[in-house]
């Protein structure tokens, strides 16, 4: 019998009010087998020291439940920005995430690949990524704490990595540092133009990802359906199976060899814990019967909007 927990399914949990006080009850209410949290303002630069008692209780609570945890860095992080203050704050935010991640036993700190913002700045932006990211990777590796996990974006805005093939120059910029991994977001991939909804499309995209970065780099999955068409460049998450990606793609995701052993996190709409509980239940059902994928849904026509 296959180990159904080889792909633990969980959710991004709220942390306002304290990690242990808020995130652990969300974990229990949703039957989550993995968890992701913010440890600072997701839309700001303020960095919280956290409360040692809360961090210790969260660490113990995850250990008791055998639940792997991850941190998502602020959504403002952009190591490719032409604005020096943004780069400096981004580096500080990642360093903070690594520090807090060590305290709470997190396996990884997720951050967005970033954007060059301006035309003609992409080459400079990648050199900048190297200058800023390499010291952080070295620090994380030396401490033996969480890995840094780069998440390709939905595209547009001179982004440094949207399609999975874009990760090659990103990894090359940091000499393929062993402490850099990948967080793959299904909604982002769909928005960037990967047709993961067509039968075989999710598998082909994951194959391309592994071919680009190599085995062992993919470390975390964000399982999100989408409100928009393939190639839309719009990052609007939807309930699993309700959006334009559809259930069949997630069944394919959960039986692909590249995802074996990897946690799967939903970041879908949720009123309290209800939405996440439903999406975790859907993915758990698909995981339990990976050879009985539902019929692919009728596809929304692809957007003709070009990538930025």
Gap between N and C termini: 46 Å
What's the total helix number? 9
- Count of β-strands: 10
**CATH-defined superfamily:** Divalent-metal-dependent TIM barrel enzymes
> Can you give the helix content as a percent range?
25-40%
The residue ranges in which pLDDT falls below 50 over 5 or more consecutive positions are: 292-296, 298-308
**CATH topology, which one?**
TIM Barrel
User: By helix and strand content, what is the structural category?
Assistant: alpha/beta
Please tell me the total number of domains. Answer: 1
Q: Kindly provide the radius of gyration, computed on alpha-carbon positions and rounded to a whole number of angstroms.
A: 18 Å
Order of the strands making up the biggest sheet: 1-2-3-4-5-6-7-10
Note the beta-strand portion.
Answer: 5-15%
Mass-distribution shape: globular
């Amino acid at each position: 019998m296959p180990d159904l927990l080889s792909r633990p399914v969980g959710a991004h949990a709220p942390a306002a009010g304290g990690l242990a006080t808020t995130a652990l009850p969300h974990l229990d209410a949703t039957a989550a087998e993995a968890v992701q949290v913010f440890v600072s303002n997701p839309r700001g630069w303020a960095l919280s020291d956290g409360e040692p008692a809360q961090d210790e209780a969260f660490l113990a609570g995850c250990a008791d439940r055998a639940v792997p945890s991850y941190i998502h860095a602020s959504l403002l992080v952009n190591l490719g920005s032409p604005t020096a203050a943004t780069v400096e704050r981004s580096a500080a935010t990642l360093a903070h995430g690594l520090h807090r991640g060590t305290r709470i036993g997190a396996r990884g700190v997720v951050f967005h690949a970033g954007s060059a913002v301006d035309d003609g700045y992409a080459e400079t932006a990648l050199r900048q990524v190297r200058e800023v990211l390499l010291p952080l990777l070295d620090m994380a590796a030396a401490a033996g704490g969480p890995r840094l996990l780069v998440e390709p974006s939905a595209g547009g805005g001179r982004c440094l990595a949207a399609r999975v093939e874009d990760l090659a120059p990103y990894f090359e910029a940091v000499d393929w540092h062993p402490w850099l991994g990948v967080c793959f977001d299904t909604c982002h991939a769909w928005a960037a133009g990967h047709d993961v909804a067509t039968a075989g499309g999710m598998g082909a995209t994951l194959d391309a990802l592994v071919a680009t970065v190599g085995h062992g780099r993919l470390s975390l999955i964000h399982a999100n359906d989408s409100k928009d068409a393939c190639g839309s460049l719009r990052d609007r998450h939807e309930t699993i199976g309700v959006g334009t990606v559809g259930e069949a793609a997630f069944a394919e995701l959960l039986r692909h060899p590249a995802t074996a052993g990897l946690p799967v996190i939903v970041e879908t709409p949720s009123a309290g814990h209800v939405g996440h509980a439903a999406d975790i239940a859907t993915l758990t059902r698909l995981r339990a019967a990976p050879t009985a994928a539902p019929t692919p849904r009728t596809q929304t026509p692809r957007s003709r909007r070009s990538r930025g």
